[in-house]
Specification:
- It is a single chain.
- Strands 1-2-4-3 form a four-stranded mixed β-sheet. Strands 5-6-8-7 form a four-stranded mixed β-sheet, with no helix packed on it.
- Helix 4 packs across helix 5.
- The two termini are 29 Å apart.
- Helix content is 35%, strand content 22%.
């Protein structure tokens, strides 16, 4: 490792300090925060990222030395992370929260097709993972757009645009302009979890806050208590982020 600089950290820095736990490896990222009072170390269970939040006036040298002293804890946390799910002819996709086997037949069409509880797909095996992920994102957009339209009509509001992405920090967002974006990975969650998230974002078209009226509207749109869905995402969300990660 190169000698660490002793200057104050002004922006996020990917250091050369690396860790290995089980099959997961990671390098340390230093992230300065003007609001931090102490150094905070976190291993992201979704991605394996190792991030050290650093208060003002703490030097890079001191931060790296402190993180190096936490090696045993960091590598134990990395070892606990389940490797990303493999995607291939003999694997399955957790579509709608249920395993859907991939039925690969080389002479079939390259574009995946959902038939009952199987995903039928052809074409070269080596390109199957990227084609399947592309199809899943398109399928997620179609399903989430339809359900957003359903709840928007029920709430008496309009939505200017629906999109999907792959954020790490949130499952959905609603802008003041009427654009709603979701994590495409919601298509891997059970139906009630996905629909509760849609109801949550549509309710923001009426209330751009999380006050009592907002929560009452979410429950009315969803026609059930959304708390079990939120709890499911807190408990299982990291697993959804492991599917196809890195492709």
């Amino acid at each position: 490792m190169k000698p660490a600089r002793s200057s104050t950290i002004w922006s996020s820095v990917t250091s050369e300090l690396s860790f290995q736990g089980g099959t997961t490896s990671a390098t340390l990222t230093l992230r300065p925060s003007p609001r931090a009072r102490v150094m905070r170390l976190r291993v992201d269970p979704r991605t394996g990222a190792v991030v050290l939040t650093v208060p003002p006036r703490v030097s890079q040298r001191r931060a790296l030395a402190w993180a190096a002293g936490q090696r045993a804890w960091i590598e134990a946390a990395l070892a606990d992370i389940t490797p990303p799910d493999e995607i291939g002819p003999n694997s399955a996709v957790p579509l709608y929260g249920r395993p859907h086997p991939i039925a690969w037949e080389p002479k079939q069409a390259r574009t995946p097709k959902l038939i009952d509880d199987r995903i039928l797909v052809g074409g070269p095996a080596e390109t199957l993972p990227t084609r399947l992920l592309r199809w899943l994102k398109q399928h997620a957009l179609a399903v989430l757009s339809r359900e957003t339209e359903e709840y928007a009509a029920k709430a008496g509001v309009t939505v200017s645009r629906v999109g999907v992405g792959d954020p790490l920090s949130r499952w959905g967002s609603c802008s003041s302009s009427g654009t709603i974006r979701y994590s495409w990975r919601l298509i891997l969650a059970p139906d009630h979890v996905r629909r509760a998230t849609v109801a949550h974002e549509v309710a923001h078209r009426v209330h751009m806050n999380h006050g009592p009226d907002f929560h009452a509207l979410v429950a009315r749109l969803f026609e059930a208590d959304p708390k079990p869905a939120r709890d499911w995402l807190r408990r299982e969300g990291a697993r959804l982020h492991r599917f196809g990660r890195g492709l």
